[in-house]
Amino acid sequence: MALETPTIKQLEYFVRLAESSTFRGAAEQLKISQPTLTAQIYNLEKTLNLTLVERSRSGATLTPAGRDLLTNARQVLEEMNGLLDQAAMMNHGPGGTFRMGVSPTIGPYLLPHILPGLHQTYASLKLFVRENTPKALELDLLEGRLDLVLISQPFGTPRLTTEVLFEEPLKLITPEDHPLAKLERVETHHLRGQNILTLEEQYSSYHQMELLCSELGATIARDYEGSSLDALRQMVIMGMGLTFVPSTYIYSEIHQPQGLSVRDVENLNLHRTLVLAWRQNSPNRGFYRQLAELIRSLVKTNLSDAKLSF
Amino acid sequence: MALETPTIKQLEYFVRLAESSTFRGAAEQLKISQPTLTAQIYNLEKTLNLTLVERSRSGATLTPAGRDLLTNARQVLEEMNGLLDQAAMMNHGPGGTFRMGVSPTIGPYLLPHILPGLHQTYASLKLFVRENTPKALELDLLEGRLDLVLISQPFGTPRLTTEVLFEEPLKLITPEDHPLAKLERVETHHLRGQNILTLEEQYSSYHQMELLCSELGATIARDYEGSSLDALRQMVIMGMGLTFVPSTYIYSEIHQPQGLSVRDVENLNLHRTLVLAWRQNSPNRGFYRQLAELIRSLVKTNLSDAKLSF
DNA sequence: TATGATGATAGGGATATCCTATCAATAAAA
DNA sequence: TTTTATTGATAGGATATCCCTATCATCATA
């Protein structure tokens, strides 16, 4: 039967034959028998419908067509070698570009503290980081557009594995001139009737806040939902209400809290739990687990100020 | 057994699978069965020692390594397609770049008249033309560095086929003020005692001239052998002797023979025979024969002034 | 003339490739 | 919840491909 595409082997044989200029010599270098080489070259010529080699008693010479196609054959083999090199690289350390999704409330404040450490441990690791809302991240992860997601619980677990990284406290921030800022200790009952600003509903903290407010008798400012922690901060400064933000945000962005007061609330153990998530059966789940462990230890050393718990 | 290099088929399967995102769909498009596809992808992964595809009940997704290698795989297939395209081109008309050797006493004066015609008939024909001395040309042809040689007889025929193209007369050229230039008719006996300039010994005309001179009683100017027809012409103008040059040279270069007289010698049927030569068993010998025929007819129409005989 | 090199050919065995039939697990529909 | 359809994995067997050894015919050379 007529073949359709030359074989990589046939191209290798052809190139070697062109360099050796005798079938026997080339066959020896290729560690195959001369009849095998003859047959494969013949097959190659048949699939291309061209005579590539001129046979004579004194050896083999390329025809004009053969000379021209030799260039192409070398290019094909070149690309194949590139592929093999790439694959070989990937056999040492994690291979490929991992796509990590991250919530906007986490990425800018956490990643700067851990990416250098990741690169140091996995020099060949390539991370493509993409921010999105939690719901979009979950869908992207489930459908394979992302490999990893760095997010705070609760996070859906239909076919996902989530590994807890750490818990971080949420801090109350108020305007500098707010009555609460002047108290020595802020108690839970002080929050009654206060206006609490939240992120949009797509963020998990929204529901957390909703629950909290109903318990404490505070109200949620539904008309002014923030789309970022920075936006929330600006709204607090403008006196539109109070809010809770994670401590990593505070320690990354608000070194001198101009116009703001950062407080803890007594007897209110408010925190968010950060997790790393991936598809349950992902072939790289072993590596992802290592990654989670590494992130945990990096955070422990680089963010000791933030009083995180593990 | 462990394989060494991925198969072209495996790469095709892999790329198609990446695009289809389900084994069954990809197999259907590839017109193979799903188990075959599964097996080949598995083989590919085994040769690369990498997991390329993440299998789930809802289809197949690429792993990070798979995504990165997909690019390489596409490049390999791209190059292979280039090779196939090239081969397909060569199936229409003569394929490849033909290397033609030509004597310096022929090329510059004959090729301008025939190359345009060749290109017109064989649009895809690519000719690489190289000038060299007849002896070097013969060796290059025998050892496969050239495919064709355009040269004048005699030309060695151990394992070569030579096809006569035409015969062209040799013309006597003298200085304008030479006594022979004033005669109405130049007879053979007028040449007795004259000094005849020739090309170097490597050229076949040298021996032809040697024989002629001994017959006519002329002498060969051994101290001043020319390395080109143009050199001979300059030497004639300088009054160093007479010489014979082919009529194609005259009709190409000397439109107004300044300082020169071009003459025929009565009863002296002096000419050179031009041939096209190739290796006896060359796979393209059929085409070469066509080529010789075409050159003959092109010369016949384009060089009718030169009084060639066929 | 004899020798050593070349590529071509014949016959047979090992392996790779591909198929059909079937399974187990899941997602979607009833 | 149950049923149905769809997913990829697996088993067994037919066929094609690849490769080998042994041998031949031809030619260059000693």
Task: Draw up the topology in text.
The structure is a homodimer of 310-residue chains.
Chain A: H1 8-20, H2 23-30, H3 34-48, E1 53-56, E2 59-62, H4 64-90, E3 97-102, H5 107-121, E4 126-131, H6 134-142, E5 148-152, E6 160-175, E7 195-196, H7 204-216, E8 219-220, H8 229-237, E9 243-246, H9 247-253, E10 260-263, E11 271-279, H10 285-302
Parallel strand pairs in A: 3-4, 3-5, 7-8
Antiparallel strand pairs in A: 1-2, 5-11, 6-9, 6-10, 6-11
The first copy, chain A, binds a DNA duplex (30 and 30 nucleotides) through helix 3.
Keywords (chains A, B): Activator, DNA-binding, Transcription, Transcription regulation
GO molecular function (chains A, B): DNA binding; DNA-binding transcription factor activity
Organism (chains A, B): Amphritea balenae
What do you see in this structure?
Chain A has helices at 8-20, 23-30, 34-48, 64-90, 107-121, 134-142, 204-216, 229-237, 247-253, 285-302, and strands spanning 53-56, 59-62, 97-102, 126-131, 148-152, 160-175, 195-196, 219-220, 243-246, 260-263, 271-279. The first copy, chain A, is an alpha/beta fold and 310 residues long. The first copy, chain A, is rod-shaped, with a radius of gyration of 32 Å. In chain A, the strands form 3 sheets. In chain A, strands 3, 4, 5, 6, 9, 10 and 11 form a 7-stranded mixed sheet that branches. A two-stranded antiparallel ribbon of chain A has the order 1-2. A two-stranded parallel ribbon of chain A has the order 7-8. The first copy, chain A, contains 10 helices and 11 strands. Helix content of chain A is 43%, strand content 20%. The mean pLDDT of chain A is 81. The interface between A and B is large, with 50 and 50 residues. Chain A binds a DNA duplex (30 and 30 nucleotides) through α3.
